Task: structure prediction
Amino acid sequence: MDISIIPIFDDNYVFHILTEDGLSVVIDPGDAQPVIDFLNRHELPLHIILHTHHHWDHIDGDPLLQEKYGCEIWGPEHEILRILHMNVFLENEQEYTLGTDSFKVIHTPGHTRGHIALYFEKHQVLFSGDTLFSLGCGRLFEGTPTQMWDSLKKIRALPDQTQIYCAHEYTLDNARFWKSIEPENPKLSKTIEDILEKRKKNISTTPTTIAFEKDRNPFLRADDPQLAYALKKDGQTPEEIFAYIRKLKDNF
Ligand SMILES: [Zn+2]
Result:
């Protein structure tokens, strides 16, 4: 399975998947033209659009792409009223075949109620949409902090080497936030240096890995005593700590 990154707008990523048997798939095409340009450049058709959630910057490319390629649209069953013209309604915790590959739907509510992440177990790849970002997580538009924390714990339980493809390039801003709440973390300065180096060369910080995020991402570490200590929140529950840092980040 080949994965390519198609940058759109200021900081969104659309992902293209080509399975071994030639099935051509895009995830969350918020804009059609960059996807069409990519497909033309590689002389590829488009068979399926996959969606993690209903926000405009993830679905607005659908009408043009469906008209041009006659592709199917697959998306979360709970967002059936928010994503038009869906052919397949992806059910939580179910497995779906995609040519020679398959993926499991992981329900990750918080950013939106029906949000899903797509897990390709054989390849150890996760498309996390706007739930998990490198060093960050999505805003809580339709969910509670506890829901989001539970969603992030589901993702954190995947194998360490899992590659995570996040739908936005927010990593540098997230790192600056991390610095503001845990300035003494020994991994901080090298991590920021590496991000700056990549971004200077216009290299994406996606994919990241579970191992990298578990060690650093404050939103995956709401139950880490070291973070609680840095925040002077010893004794608080992970849910309280998560809610606290999510609120700080909203106003950062
Ligand atoms: Zn979103």
The chain is about 35% helix and 25% strand.
